[in-house]
Amino acid sequence: MFYNTVVRLVQFLLFLLTGKTDIQNRENLPVDRAFILAAPHRSWIDPLYIAVAAYPHTFATMAKQELFDRNRLLNWLIRKMNGIPVNRDNPGPSAIKQPVTILKERKMNFLIFSTGTRYDSQVKGGTTAIARLAKAPIIPVVYQGPFTFKELLMRKKGHVYFGTPIELPPGRLTKEEMAGFDQELQNSFDNLDHKIDPDFSFDYKKK
Known about the structure:
7-stranded mixed β-sheet, globular, alpha/beta, Glycerol-3-phosphate (1)-acyltransferase
């Protein structure tokens, strides 16, 4: 499978560049049901380390439409890696419907960057909306390590910590209840960051 081949290749390259990745709590990933893997987005390197740490689990994910429009080769590669284009300025209903469909089919899991972009630290509501409709657990995950190509070459060690699953109750939820689960996810990110490095901070530079 193309996805597996690429992830194994990336795993090998990351090992050559930065050595063995520190991976904690991988046992929190379900093996008998589809799930959402939710992370804060800080760098283009995030998905590489997270996909490798969660392997052999397979994921689909959303990527900004601009990446698909750059050239045919990049479009082909992202789609082969189960990427779904999304218009960040006007995401539309498909931004929720497509992940829900994928999770209900149980052929793949779904990786989502709950902060939306690399320029914001706050969790958006899409993750919990998808989880409620798909009846899928949310597994928080945080990555720390090299955030730039320069840091990769400096052999800075990578860390990936998986958190405790967040289960939404069945049935309808109020806006306040959904916001509460968003905050629980945000707290999970903060707690995992603290476990990796109590002094960690990240400068989310605005565009």
